[in-house]
Task: structure prediction
Amino acid sequence: MPPDRNEKTDEAVRANGSEAGLRIREAKREEAELLANLMREAAQVMVDNGVEQWKPEMFNAQTVLSYFDTRRVFLLTAEDRPAGLFTLQESDPAYWADADDDRYLYLHRLTVRPEYRGLDYGGFMLRFAEKEAARRGKLGLRLDCVAHLPSLNAYYVRGGFRFVAERDLKREVGGRYVNLYQKLVSDGL
Result:
């Protein structure tokens, strides 16, 4: 069972995760291939548009299955059709290093299916994750974003996230810079 999944969590998902045909629920391990397909679709759009971030080959069912060991995986549906996903975890030392703090939730893999872009489904999932952080008594929500995509960084800033730091995750191979962001419960979650 994923960390901290229980009836109370499922109740919060039902209470906070529906709006105009949208619903967020915890994904199941049996849906690993579906989740991998969603991320591959998003990655292919990135590749097709010359965006250097995800590659389709990064995502397969085995990779997604491993997410369930350390993260809670959430699936967004629109009128019962898979529309997006994200993951939440209790800590993230790989990105946050010494600043890692289990008083926050850490969001990864925010994905919106290409045909649903421009409908603020990403914002819907972020707001859900923020509410989940507040419901669980966390200080806030943290995430990382590749530093070389100004429009994506601006998206998070518009959503109320504050820049914390830039990190070089792969110094030994020429660098992979990410910006770290957080939104505190006191910032209006």
Notes: Strands lie at 18-19, 22-26, 72-78, 81-89, 104-112, 140-146, 162-168, 177-184. The chain has one domain: 7-187. Helices lie at 7-16, 32-48, 61-70, 93-96, 121-135, 150-158.
